[in-house]
């Protein structure tokens, strides 16, 4: 009996102790978690990580909307300035950017949502912090304008020249989004774009876009109002330039004449050889014209870009609805290089020319081979003049 009472007392005391312990554990874990959350919240408030997270939940910023409107105005300006047919189509697509095309519309929203991480690294430079202090919000946007080609026609020169303009910012290297990295998505693409502020144009150049079959449709789906810049050059000189570049990377490269023709004679041109194939510009242009009106395309003469860069850059600025800021005073002719060079560029404030991979010496090519190639290209060139409405007068 005594033992029984003793056991009962013991178990109720153990129960009481266990209860007290539970209360203590719950209290401490609550206090600890509360401290932890308060500390995380303080850290987020202090750090830019908050800036990074917040826009992911926001659909659209006022700033972005303004930029969009601004771009539309620019599009309309350019449409009005440009020549050729299709102006109506262009105006329609510009003004309907946000409503008309479902596919495009959803993509365009991605463009304008500010999902950028804080301005760190290269573009987190003090100049951007200064802009932010002034109430401007630099952010990355999908390109409004693309230099789509043509390879070896002067695309790098065009980009270096036009980016002297304070309202043009470009991706430094070729991004190859529409031909190689399309599956990575527009978010990835936009991350490769530079920071811009309201009113600035975002530009990218990848010369292989012009000849890659899927690209016109993909660009169209990104933004039907995209402006397209195309540098073209006599296809024979272009083919030799293309060959010279390939030969510079390969020691045992066959001679140009052996590669450009089938069976060693000059009778049959090898149209499967890349450097020859790319020069049939009309064929590729037709694909682009299925998606874009001529008024959204600007053709730049590669030859004239060398002889008179200010003239061609003037046309580009007009086309983009920009004030003519880049003029002859920015260029000088470097006799050693044999090309126009810049007094200063976006990256450097001293006179300099394009790198040594631009403006290479071409090997001597048999004049009969050149004559045969000219004959081969003539009908395609004529077709190209007809499509563009411009006679480039290639020999
Ligand atoms: N200012 C200036 N300086 C140097 N080179 C100039 C310039 N303007 C046009 N060019 C011509 O540009 C040709 C190279 O074309 P791309 O830049 O389109 O080449 S690439 O496709 O990006 O590889 C390059 O071709 P090559 O002469 O065969 O090297 C040049 O003829």
Automatic annotation (TrEMBL):
InterPro entries: NST/OST, P-loop_NTPase, Sulfotransferase_dom. It holds the Pfam family Sulfotransfer_1. Keywords: Disulfide bond, Glycoprotein, Golgi apparatus, Membrane, Signal-anchor, Transferase, Transmembrane, Transmembrane helix. It is found in: Endomembrane system; Golgi apparatus membrane. Residues 62-105 are annotated as: Disordered. Residues 143-378 form the Sulfotransferase domain. The chain crosses the membrane at residues 15-40. 3'-phosphoadenylyl sulfate binds at residues 152-156, 233, 241, 358-362. It is a single-pass type II membrane protein. The active site is at 152 (for sulfotransferase activity). Disulfide bonds join 341-353. Coiled coil: none annotated. Its main location: membrane. It comes from the Eukaryota. One of its GO terms (molecular function) is [heparan sulfate]-glucosamine 3-sulfotransferase activity. GO terms for cellular component: Golgi membrane. Belongs to the sulfotransferase 1 family. This is Heparan sulfate glucosamine 3-O-sulfotransferase 6. It comes from Drosophila lebanonensis. The lineage of its organism: Eukaryota, Metazoa, Ecdysozoa, Arthropoda, Hexapoda. The gene is LOC115629693.
